[in-house]
Amino acid sequence: DVKVTQSSRYLVKRTGEKVFLECVQDMDHENMFWYRQDPGLGLRLIYFSYDVKMKEKGDIPEGYSVSREKKERFSLILESASTNQTSMYLCASSLWDRNTEAFFGQGTRLTVV
Amino acid sequence: AQSVAQPEDQVNVAEGNPLTVKCTYSVSGNPYLFWYVQYPNRGLQFLLKYITGDNLVKGSYGFEAEFNKSQTSFHLKKPSALVSDSALYFCAVRDLNSGGYQKVTFGTGTKLQVIP
Predict the structure, then answer these.
(1) Is the pLDDT of residue A1 over 80?
(2) How far is the alpha carbon of A67 from chain B, nearest alpha carbon, in Å?
(3) What is the rounded CA–CA span in Å between residue B13 and residue B109?
(4) Residues A80-105: pLDDT tens digits?
(5) Which residue of B has its CA nearest to A37?
(6) Which has the higher per-residue pLDDT, A108 or B40?
(7) If DSSP states are collapsed to H, E and C, what string results for A22-72?
C-alpha cells in the first residue's frame, strides 16, 4: 500500500518560531508537493520538487522554504511563523508522468499563536 | 493560465438518490482532469481521472464522471448516494501543454452532505 507520511497531525507554534514540517513517501516518486488548504480557497501550491535538491515556487511561496536532500523526503520550513500561516498543510507525491494522480499525506494542522 | 471552478460550496442529497458534483475548467491545451475526495481531518484520496478516450470515466466507490469538451465540464456522479459518501470533493486540472512544470490546479471544493 502506497504511503505518504507527514510527521505531525497537529502542531501549535508561537509567532516567530522556525517550524519544520516533514514528509516522507515510500513510492519512489519523482515529484513531491506542499499545499496549503484553507476554507473557501481550496488547495494552493506552496512549493514543488521534481528531483533531489530541485525545487520550484508554487502560487504562494512567500514566508516558506523547502528542502529535498533525499528522494523520499520533502520538508517545508516556515522561517518565522506568523498567525496568517495557521492552516492545514498537505504533502503529496506523484510520478513524473503528467497523467498520474497524486498521493496525499494525512495533513498537518498548524496553529500559530 | 489554467483554472477550475466548482460552483457549489455544498450539495445536499437524500440517501439513495443520484448525486452530481459540478466542475468546469479552463486550459489552453488539452486537459487532464481529476477528482479527489477528502474525509474529515484526512488528506485527499484519488477517485478517478480523465486523460483521453471514453468521455465517461469510472472510479472508486461507484463514482463516475463525464468529460464534456464543448462545455468544458467534468461533473462527478453517482447513481445512488450513501451516507458514507459525505465528504469534501475536489476537482483538479493539469494542462497537457504546461511544459515541464507539473502544476495541478485544484478547485475550491464542494461539500457533499448525504441525508439519511
Answers:
(1) no
(2) 18
(3) 17
(4) 999 999 999 999 999 877 778 899 99
(5) B108
(6) A108
(7) EEEECCCCCEEEEEEEECCCEEEEEEEECCCCCCEECCCCCCEEEEEEECC
